[in-house]
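sorry to bug you again but im stuck and you know this stuff better than me. what follows is a protein written twice so to speak, once as letters and once as structure tokens for the fold. id like you to explain what the token line says about the fold, in plain words if possible. anything you notice is useful, everything is just below.
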Amino acid sequence: MPTLQAVALWLLLLCALPWSLAAQDGPPPLRDYAIDVWTSRNGLPHNSLRDIAQTPEGHLWFATWEGLVRYNGLDFTVFDRSTTPGLRDNGVGALLVDRSGGLWISDSRGNVTRRSADGRWQVWEHRADTPQVLIQAMQMDSHGRLWLLYEGKGIASLGPDGTFDYQAPPADVPLAMSFTKLVVDAQDRVWVGTLDGLVVRDSDGVLRRAPESFGLGRGLVWPYRAPDGVMWVVASERIYRMQDGVPLLQHRLPGATHITAMLQDRHGDLWLGTENQGLLRLSRHGLERLPAGLSLPGGRVVSLREDAEGSIWVGANGGLYRLRETLFSSYTERDGLSGDYVRTVFEDRQRQLWIGSARGLDRRDAQGNVSPVPLRNNVGKSPSVLSLAQDRDGDLWVGTFGDGIFRVAENGQPRRTYGSADGLLGGNIRAISIDRDGVIWAGTQKGVVRIVADRAEPVSFPGMPTGLTTALAHDAQGALWIGTIEGIRVLRGNRVQAIDLEALGGGRSVFGFQQIGDAMWVSTDRGLYRYQEGKLARVGLEQGMPVDTVFQLIPDRVGNVWISSNRGVLRTDMAMLNAVADGRAARVEVEHYNEIDGMANSQANGSSGPSAILRQDGTFWVVTAGGLSTVDPLRLQRFRERLAPPAVIETVLVDGAPLHWQGSNHNTIPGGRRLSVSYVGLSYLLSERIRYRTRLEGLDKGWVERGQQRSVEFIGLPPGEYTLHVSAAHPGGAWSDSEAVWAFTVEPFLWQRHSVQLIAALLLLAGLVALYRYLINRYKASNVRLARLVQEATLDLQTQTVNLQALNQEKTELADRLAVQAEAFERQAREDALTGLPNRRAFDEALARDFARSQRSRHPLCLVVLDIDHFKEVNDQHSHSVGDVVLVEVARLLASACRDSDMPARTGGEEFALLLNDTRLDEAAQVCARLRGLFHDHPDWAGIPDLKVTFSAGLVELDAADRTPMLLYQRADRALYRAKSEGRDRTAIG
């Protein structure tokens, strides 16, 4: 039987447990919330949001001056006067979700619209006896009456039967100065806020000011009813809680004189929106304001709403804002750090946190106070800190970018500096490690040094690296692991072992070491490597890591492994990493965190150390390019255990046309259509990371993973009954039990109906019988016709044979005539039509041929170009016909004077040429002289007495300077003109 003391102790523990759990699960300080912002640039139709509501299925709804907006976490859908269904007016005043999940919408012209849970819309337009003004607020009482607050015009109620009861304000009630707050309490009393005090409609139905005994005063006073039913009243800077019908002062907020919105969240904390001082919170952390850099833009906070996941939505005049808890917290310059570009972090034995950045070193004490450490380089500036380590005496060793190593006491006072005068190699000190004997080892840009007796000496054993050192670590056996941009070296005593990473996955640059058990894990530019019992294994991109380059691996105390990278922090578990490294699993499952999860910057830093640590309290800290980020692994479980997002179907399109599927138990769709279904998981935390799966009963045998795809399409579904199931899940979380389900029927085509198919089968059978008989008869007739055709064809073939023989004879004769004509045409193409001599084309071809042959054989070649003297006078005095006869006689004389190997030609009107093969210049001159004699001795040219015809000629012989036939011809032509200029009737030699 337990003792009295034991029972007392057990009761004490039971009483203390809820308090401790509540303290652990309570909300973080306001500074640790992330703020997301949406404006008209992000899809909102207007930046002023008057009200916010969330319907039971999870959609968020926003009231704006340009319509009603629905939000699913990714997309805004606007309903206004231009849409179907649409609103009577774009200016939306207030929103209210009733007990059955219907959404009530009021507008600026006194209309009220209700959207039911199944998507049907119903409108109550303003009546002649109700004001046509903005309905500022709506609330529903216990009888289902909807109470409406008309701007400056009083109140009204809309009964469940659709009846309106409008109540204008009495003269002494300041509803002409009404504020946007109306509340119905548990006794169905209506409370209205105004700019001149609080107004109450009591059970007697009379509107009157709140009793003076309340002590609320005049000015802006308005009511708020919390989700737990408690009534609150805000009056100036005071906040009252109604208890037993009397307001009791709970908070006084000096300076916050214009509180415009209020929200009590699930933790009981009060969120307060103001006119121009942003957002406040009253919580266990006291009165909190958003820290510098996180404040909302100026302007009134109009509405506040806590969604189903605990995020706080703020509707302001400048846009929509959301505050959400994040897994990570971050510290930046606004928290006292010297710089946001943090390179290294270290926790000493006194639980002080040392933070090295590009702008110096900071020390954060156990109470969270941050102070800079007064380090100065030789030009009086704070050095850029790259590495940190603590020795056995408690001193901190600080490696810098180009400024050597600083030694700092635990109280932050510098002791001394080590530089090149102390033997330290130049460059960057990116890593420092202290062995079990207390020796300081430092990685420099020129290799590794160790500091002994206040002197730095290079470590120059054979095989030691001499370039940039990026990481150092001593293992449990005392060996020094050295990371470089060219792989790993391990120093054991005075022997150096090289470990080749490149052969396994291509790793080269090493950024960090972490010993876990008997294995050393290495972070590189090609993922993680594990060195264990002399064997190397790799877990990289091909094994499921989302990035190549990782900087530091840190295991926590609850089985997680945290890995920093250039693209955020990765989380997996140690057992999975080992399974992949052992080959027992193909891929590692990794969760990926970045700015969305509260990190100051998703770019973690490497090539410095330590770049991530696990503190003594179990929290993980990582340096980034935008500050220092931290996560408590114990909070991870709460984040991972959040409810899976409910899936909803948003649109159904049939051949691109919308289908009204809501509110119908079953839809019928014609066969052969293209069916597109869009869906979404209604979570507003990491909405873009939600995973989906679908299952179409009647087609799929199981679930089909869709990844982050938010729609599915089916084309040409066979006729039948179908039910589509959609489920959603957070990354790494369970699938939602709240599935989206839609049942529908695909109708068969006319030809797919059984009755139509039976009739078609009978008609086909009858048609086949008729076709068979028709074919038999046609076969018989075809035999008779075929015999006749064969006989006729035989006779025709015989006739064709005779004709073909005649045609063949004609073809032969035609071919012979064509050959003769072709020969004549070829001759005419190269023969002068008047003289019968070769023409210019034939002469050019012969000149080119003989020119080439003479160059090859070195045989002589002469060319004579001659022109009939005064031939124009012959034509002018005796006619062109006489001139033609003269040309014919000249051609005859030329031909008679030539040998068979020579070629005379007519090259122009009265121009001729003579090509003399194998003829020297003197022999050619004799030919010209003989030809001149023939001209002189020729009597009666063209039958005309006393008509004398002479010629002038240019004679040349081929020599080495004549590189082309044209050059040879031009030289002869120049000699011809010289003969003419010297008096004609002569031959000039060129």
About this structure: The CA atoms of residues 37 and 321 lie 5 Å apart. Residues 1-24 have pLDDT under 50 and may be disordered. Residues 753-830 form one domain. The first strand starts at residue 33 and ends at 38.
